[in-house]
Design brief:
Low-confidence stretches: 166-178
Number of strands: 5
Helix content: 40-55%
Number of helices: 8
Strand content: 5-15%
Radius of gyration: 16 Å
Strand order of the largest sheet: 2-3-1-4-5
Shape: globular
Length: 178
């Protein structure tokens, strides 16, 4: 199962809680982090670094599928949703769910980013894409509630029965095949 979630929804926290949940961090694949090794994971986000893998999207998707095939729930970067959807379409199976905060929660999330130590550039970038990303997904959640969950105030991924998403994956496969 692949779970896509917006920044600040608790992917890292969830992965630390469950052995079968993996937070596949895109920046570890895409960038050479040797110059920022002294920074925390959150401080590194949006920090300029050299790209180490120009094929990082393919590498990331391949790694995610390997983890998925081993039975893990893979928490993936929302910014790679479209390349993943293309791969799901190619394979004819849609083993995913998307979690996004309600668009009205912008100030709550800005505070989450400050509290976890994100740099100002990261916060600016996320706040810039806030409405263009979340409003369409919020609207799509009305049409595809089995695939998109919009969270409320003070909610994180821990508020949801993530371990039950293996059952959802089986249901989604069945829905696609019908």
């Amino acid at each position: 199962m692949f779970l896509f979630a917006f920044p600040g929804m608790g992917k890292t926290t969830l992965a630390k809680k469950y052995n079968t949940v993996v937070d596949l961090e895109l920046s570890n694949i895409k960038y050479d982090n040797s110059s920022v090794i002294h920074l925390t994971r959150e401080e590194r986000k949006s920090t300029k670094r050299p790209i180490k893998d120009k094929n990082y999207k393919k590498t990331y998707i391949s790694m995610a599928y390997t983890l998925h095939e081993k039975g893990n729930i893979v928490l993936v970067a929302l910014n790679l949703l479209f390349p993943f959807l293309k791969e799901f379409w190619r394979q004819g199976v849609f083993p995913f769910h998307i979690f996004v905060p309600h668009p009205s929660l912008k100030s709550e999330y800005r505070q989450r980013y400050l509290n976890r130590g994100n740099n100002h550039r990261f916060i600016f970038e996320v706040m810039t894409i806030w409405y263009p990303t979340l409003v369409p997904l919020w609207l799509l959640s009305k049409i595809f509630p089995k695939w998109i969950t919009v969270t409320g105030p003070r909610e994180t991924l821990e508020n949801y029965e993530i371990q039950n998403f293996h059952q959802t994956e089986s249901r989604n496969k069945k829905l696609i095949l019908e």
